Amino acid sequence: MGVAFIGLGHMGLPMARNLAKAGHAVTGFDIVPALVERAAQAGIAPAPSIAACVSGAEWVVTMLPSSPHVRAAWAGPGGVLEHAPAGARFIDSSTIDPMAAREVAALAAARGHAMIDAPVSGGTAGAEAATLTFMVGGDAADFEAARALLASMGKNLVHCGAAGNGQVAKICNNLMLAIGMIATSEGMALATRLGMDPKVFAGIVNTSSGRCWSSDTYNPWPGVLDSAPASRGYTGGFGTDLMLKDLGLAADAARAAKVPILAGSLAQQLYQRHSSAGHGALDFSSIVMQVTGTAP
Amino acid sequence: MGVAFIGLGHMGLPMARNLAKAGHAVTGFDIVPALVERAAQAGIAPAPSIAACVSGAEWVVTMLPSSPHVRAAWAGPGGVLEHAPAGARFIDSSTIDPMAAREVAALAAARGHAMIDAPVSGGTAGAEAATLTFMVGGDAADFEAARALLASMGKNLVHCGAAGNGQVAKICNNLMLAIGMIATSEGMALATRLGMDPKVFAGIVNTSSGRCWSSDTYNPWPGVLDSAPASRGYTGGFGTDLMLKDLGLAADAARAAKVPILAGSLAQQLYQRHSSAGHGALDFSSIVMQVTGTAP
Amino acid sequence: MGVAFIGLGHMGLPMARNLAKAGHAVTGFDIVPALVERAAQAGIAPAPSIAACVSGAEWVVTMLPSSPHVRAAWAGPGGVLEHAPAGARFIDSSTIDPMAAREVAALAAARGHAMIDAPVSGGTAGAEAATLTFMVGGDAADFEAARALLASMGKNLVHCGAAGNGQVAKICNNLMLAIGMIATSEGMALATRLGMDPKVFAGIVNTSSGRCWSSDTYNPWPGVLDSAPASRGYTGGFGTDLMLKDLGLAADAARAAKVPILAGSLAQQLYQRHSSAGHGALDFSSIVMQVTGTAP
Amino acid sequence: MGVAFIGLGHMGLPMARNLAKAGHAVTGFDIVPALVERAAQAGIAPAPSIAACVSGAEWVVTMLPSSPHVRAAWAGPGGVLEHAPAGARFIDSSTIDPMAAREVAALAAARGHAMIDAPVSGGTAGAEAATLTFMVGGDAADFEAARALLASMGKNLVHCGAAGNGQVAKICNNLMLAIGMIATSEGMALATRLGMDPKVFAGIVNTSSGRCWSSDTYNPWPGVLDSAPASRGYTGGFGTDLMLKDLGLAADAARAAKVPILAGSLAQQLYQRHSSAGHGALDFSSIVMQVTGTAP
Fold first, then answer.
1. What is the mean pLDDT of residues D203-230?
2. How many angstroms away from the CA of C50 is the closest CA of chain A?
3. Do B7 and B145 belong to one domain?
4. Bigger pLDDT: D84 or B237?
5. Pair (A222, A141) in one structural domain
6. Are residues B81 and B106 in the same domain?
7. Does residue C150 have a pLDDT over 60?
8. How far apart, in Å, are the Cα atoms of C61 and each of C3, C5, C68?
9. What's the pTM value of the predicted model, to 2 decimals?
10. D171 and D134 in one domain?
11. Measured between alpha carbons, how far is B7 from B127 in angstroms, rounded to an integer?
12. Residue C277: which of B262, B273, B293 has the nearest Cβ?
């Protein structure tokens, strides 16, 4: 199928490449011309504008950094909604606030286009390996229609309900993750400082009620899990600044929804402190340094 | 074997009873005479004093509410250390601060007694059913020596390292649990308020990185898990005031160890607020009410 | 002088009226026609549009609820910048984020207009009585030029530096105020619960290092200060929802400036909790109820 | 008058010396013999034990580091209560928890001794210069009886109500102070990072509702107040570790009184973090470094 892919950065490029590998005719656009050129070398047909990119497309996929970019690309002058062919189906894989996602979806619907929001988790490694998780908001039928396309780029496809719910699921999951990582950091630091072996303590917690993904799969204490970023200097993984971005979206959504999130808000400020101290590029599990004072 | 059991309250009585059922000769004492009488009806030989209780015992087990009680029972005038027969082995199953546990263990060792700290999780239901988890601090050989006795009262026996480490494991696990429950509450409340079905959201989180024991086994949102206290009005389970007690121990230990626990401390204050609002007897997962304003 | 006044709500109307009382020819506009009519009855010449309102004006003053309103009124189609006569001077008294204020001021400057941001404190009572405090950002000369006009509406005129600094001063002051009120609430609640007379405790604090505006001028404990909202059921004063709005601006500014504000963020969530519990219209000092559980 | 002074450390020695200077016959004791010797060189008659120290005393004053020391010195074996002459009056100037102060006062009363708790603020400089503030709990008559003696050591004598209330006043004041200093740090950091001159911002706040002792008398930003520790590298003043001790007392008291102190608890953890990072000896206003990441 003809797929227009807009946003060819660290995530977008490998996603577009996986679509091309799966046999789709992918045309790409980015406001940064160098990214379009790089994509061209990877077999993505270059387009000089959104209009050119979506011309003749059956699917339009976007992967953009924030709500203003998404609004501009879809609803701005010269955007997708102005130029997409009748009947084209839309997927936005950007992580943005749910309200913005719903607005854009409503605009698309008003013009007769089916649109789903489909933010991902799995990072650049997941994008390269086509093992992303897609959290999808939109009509069940539209989710089904997109299944094959998404399956070319990811492994887990989860339908989360109506438009915007893909965003809701992602930011609420990451809110819990951000707090859970701090909980694990405090627990590990305290147990260790009180004389326990970190591996022994993690082993006990992981079969008990303190267990969480941050303790059993992604432990922030160096040496507890060989596969975790903590055991390789907090490189790779999911960067502190990306977590900070998602916590910002959660805070905005909570403000709009009038839900007090005391722990989430504390987490947001601690990741901010960590980023401001120069650790924004480290994996987010390095937040344990904010408890111990240094890398433990 | 001859077992002296000191502390015959909600937890101690069923534990002593399970020892008796397993064929041990259990003598019991409590500073509240009525509890000794009740125990006597359950087949525990009543003793009028610690001295009488431990006379001739091969094992002494205590299950007491706090550090001062533990210090008094073991090291106070008329206490176990004064009266226990040479060679008797000691188990303290109270949840107290690790430093106090280590002090008492050192005093016992100085008199030639092997002692382990063995706090439990599992609540009164686990005590009744002999399915408690014991987190044990002390020498590996002493842990092994106690294995059969502990197995009469519980199911999971975990050796956590040297003296006091049973306490460390318990309070650090519960610190993580307390925060994780708040994280889950905020995530569930925000996702639901933003329009997601709570069961659908929980399902997604539980296969993703926001997963924790509080989300997949003990979810605080009514109706998500039929087996959780949330689905029966937050009755039963692990009371808010018990969690608050353990958070107090964690806070004390963190202060002594000079570890800043920002999230743990926030959790402590929120459970305090919840208790002060009159909900101390509800299961601790009712902390979700502090996020939603009411039972959701 | 001819003054165009845009935004005739609870604050704008009395401010415009005070300008008229001082002898200025005031023309008013609001997107809500009923507010224009009400203003007309108070001697403000009604205008049907921004274009009509600013036609011939020497000064344009805006008093609007948020950044999007301010951007639209000034820089949107049919806005002030399109229609204001050459040489007209601009004052924005809305409380908005400093970055937005700087953007609008730069657009005004690009068209040759002097503009100051001049958010106020003092509430509707101060607006009625012409006793507002104006915190002004912009060139010193432009501040001096506006002095007479501002003095018709307020009592304290403070120059805070370059464009946007009026907003910075206001939101940072209110950030400190919001936290200080919670500090005072916790101190008063704890001292009282520990057995001190609240007036005696307040008297000691107010001559000691715990002293702050919230303790000595606006004490949240009923009966300590007869003049404070706490002594009249938290009516009047500065509403919780207004404080919440300013904390939102502070949080946004802190995020943009990459400054971690742990206490400010906790305050924001507590005021959110208070508002969500139904107390948004009460004076913000009623936040003490979040410490005591009820009105003390 | 004959005064027994127990506890001759950094605070106790200059206090005892000021009593001697005022013409009292002061006998001193400390469990550290070297401190007794040093005091002897300053004109304090050395005593080898509490018994010897209080023998014949009309007044007994203690200045000790914590509750266990206070309990031991007064109520322990060989303590003041065992040995003080009938009719001797008691003053405890240690900063301890109010409950402990009340217990000791009750024990003294049971033996017929009038006792007041009289913790101080003003630090070692105030102790040297006899300018301390005394916050006094106890009967009004006992406060009056002690007035002359206290006036030899301090300048402000404040009666706070019944026994223990001196402690309550001190720790609740310092709780408010600790939070207020963080509020000021966040406000100063944010305003400065957003482009304001720190002195200009402080000037505005100090005439507005964000004003507090930390902003107008002890500003944490270097250069704002020449007299503040911030302008001399955070040396001198009131050390972070002393503030941390008082926050610990406040946390304990809040736990006992079942008052949730969310902001106080956050403050406690931030000062802990600051101390653990190696800044425990700096003035507590250096907490601003926890906001800015470094000394600003």
1. 96
2. 25
3. yes
4. D84
5. no
6. yes
7. yes
8. 7, 5, 16
9. 0.95
10. no
11. 14
12. B293
